[in-house]
Write a structure and sequence with these properties.
single chain, mainly alpha, 21 helices, 72% helix
Length: 330
């Protein structure tokens, strides 16, 4: 048997065994079975892996993995590594982690080796809220026996490092709006940037890392009464490089996090071949968080569905897996 067949038989059995008893008796024609000769000829083996793993929750996948190991005497993750390759393998292995484990792993990967993947680092730190970051820090320590803050400090520098570290140290998940501070904060942001020569980045970092999202939404609205530019335009004028990208990500997520991810997916699939790393990261990390709302924002903003866009810019089994994860056309 091929490596993929070694995965399929126990995987299908494991998936079946965690279904309610009423569904376990459901039979299908032998020719449709993933390990039958006809099916193997049609190469529906990867399709079976895709169908089983992309249409379950993480909790169900965990149960399936447990059953798989009992039946096959081998870890499902190890079997998947042996049977799959490329972008499909990366996607499937991502789905075998919980959302927070996946975020922690992606953060580690962004700081591994010689170069830092600043784009991934910015997305993961600047788009997660206080509660998510607190949980990521805890799981990161469990998984890698290191502090996330220490790794970020060792891999970044200057104001970029200061901003990321300030964000990882946020500990107040409240939605408090301090009405007395709205005007002061808006004026401080203006006076620290557009109003003066040079930028007082420390003031920007302090306000954006220490205030709640609802509070900052009101601050950015009030900011327009002081500045001829809105907050995003001001950022583009005042700072450049990774710091600019970080502040823009923060503001976009404070305003509408799902629209931020929709735009990231759109940008990643603008050219003929997609930036698969970005697409995989967003689809896996958001599939159990807010993917339905991202789909809605994508259609509203770009006048076409996420499903159609994936279908046009990806191919093969990787495309099938993404479309299944996407869950439908809009």
């Amino acid at each position: 048997r091929t490596a993929i067949e070694e995965v399929i038989l126990p995987l299908s059995a494991a998936a079946l065994s965690v279904l309610p008893p009423a569904l376990q008796t459901h039979t299908i024609p032998w020719s449709s079975h993933p390990w039958s000769d006809e099916a193997t000829k049609k190469r529906v083996d990867e399709q079976t892996v895709i169908d089983i793993l992309t249409r379950r929750s993480y909790e169900q996948r965990r149960e399936i993995a447990f059953e798989y190991e009992r039946i096959a005497k081998k870890e499902l993750v190890v079997a998947l590594k042996g049977a799959l390759s490329g972008s499909l393998e990366t996607l499937m292995l991502g789905l075998m982690k919980s959302t927070v484990q996946y975020d922690a792993s992606e953060l580690k990967a962004s700081m591994k080796g010689l170069g830092t993947d600043e784009e991934a680092l910015i997305e993961l730190v600047c788009s997660r809220n206080n509660e998510e970051l607190a949980e990521i820090k805890r799981v990161y320590k469990d998984m890698f026996k290191k502090d996330l803050e220490k790794d970020i400090a060792g891999d970044t520098s200057g104001d970029f490092a200061k901003l990321l570290l300030a964000l990882t140290k946020r500990d107040d998940p409240s939605n408090v709006v301090d009405y007395e501070k709205i005007d002061d904060d808006a004026r401080s942001l203006y006076e620290a940037g557009v109003k003066r020569k040079g930028t007082d980045v420390t003031t920007w970092i302090t306000i954006m890392s220490k205030r709640s999202v609802p509070h900052l939404q009101k601050v950015f609205e009030r900011y327009k009464s002081y500045s001829p530019y809105d907050m995003k335009e001001s950022i583009r004028k005042e700072v450049k490089g990774d710091l600019e990208k970080s502040f823009l990500t923060l503001v976009e997520c404070f305003e509408n996090r799902q629209l931020y991810f929709a735009n990231r997916l759109f940008e990643a699939m603008k050219t003929k071949s997609a930036k698969e790393k970005v697409v995989t990261r967003i689809m896996v990390s958001r599939c159990e968080v807010d993917l339905m709302r991202i789909r809605t924002e994508f259609k509203r903003q770009h006048k076409r569905s996420l499903y159609q866009t994936i279908a046009e810019h990806t191919k093969g089994d990787y495309q099938k897996a993404l479309l299944s994860l996407c869950g439908g056309d809009d």
